[in-house]
Design brief:
InterPro entries: P-loop_NTPase, Polyphosphate_phosphotransfera, PPK2-rel_1, PPK2-related. Keywords: Kinase, Transferase. By secondary structure, the chain is an alpha/beta fold. The protein has one domain: Rossmann fold (3-Layer(aba) Sandwich), CATH 3.40.50. It contains 13 helices and five strands. The protein has a five-stranded parallel sheet with strand order 2-3-1-4-5, with helices on both faces. Helix 2 runs parallel beside helix 12 and helix 3 crosses helix 12. The protein is globular. Bound molecules: adenosine monophosphate and magnesium ion (MG). The site of adenosine monophosphate has 9 residues, from helix 6.
Amino acid sequence: MGYREEFIMHPGAKLHLDRIDPSYKGKQESHEKAAPLIAESLAQMGRLQELLYADASQSLLIVLQGLDAAGKDGVVRHLFTGMNPQGTRVFSFKQPSTEERAHDFLWRVHQHAPGRGEVVVYNRSHYEDVLVVRVHELVPRKVWSKRYELINDFENMLAKNGTRILKFYLHISPEEQLERFKQRLDDPARQWKISESDYSERLLWPKYTEAYEEAIERTSTKTAPWFVVPANHKWFRDLAISQIVADAMSGMNLKTPPPRIDLAAIRKKYHAAAEKGRRKNAWA
Ligand code: AMP
Ligand code: MG
């Protein structure tokens, strides 16, 4: 069953992030002991993704949100180890370009939504438009406050078109974030990841918390639920997310599609002569 029930935000429920322990790991004792469970979910996801691709009637959209160093990039790397790159895409949303800014906030996001048979991960998403945009007052309140409803309508439309949507908030503590910044600072291979704004954004932690709480409360729906995943332990985060994704994919009723040809007729027409050693030449 996995962690679905434990971390799902039921529509209408109140979210108090300060009451959720970012270091939670449930009954799991250690990474070593959880590793086989993680491997099992990844293998299951891989099998189901093949079916999703073959069936080509539905799609899956995974939204990742969280503060800097919460682990979004790590989850992307991890989730896809089990999947075939053919049929999957990741899109990382940065600050909007001039062209993107000239359109409505969902314009750029919609373009990258998964086509039938595809799995797409949004690393950041349209939620930035009610998070960073709200915290920094990049648009007035009367503009961003209307976006929750627009987001629900948009996601509902995608869902009605056959897209399963799963949204994850990676919940880390400020202490863990600072520790991860320090590790990046000390590791020459990862220093490129650090920017000074990472530190100045930290000072806005309470504002981001408030923005996340409202966004998650107002946009967790039956068709597009949010999951608040404790993410101080990277392995626990990976376990929870891979189980929730595998679980959702098994609920999609994916089946190997029936053949598009008459198998017996094709066997007879193209293979019978070769099997009886009566081929005229190599290609006929
Ligand atoms: P990173 O994820 O570290 O590559 O950084 C991407 C940056 O783009 C983050 O600081 C985001 O807050 C910012 N960003 C993403 N979407 C938007 C948006 N719609 N408006 C403003 N900033 C955004
Ligand atoms: Mg960053």
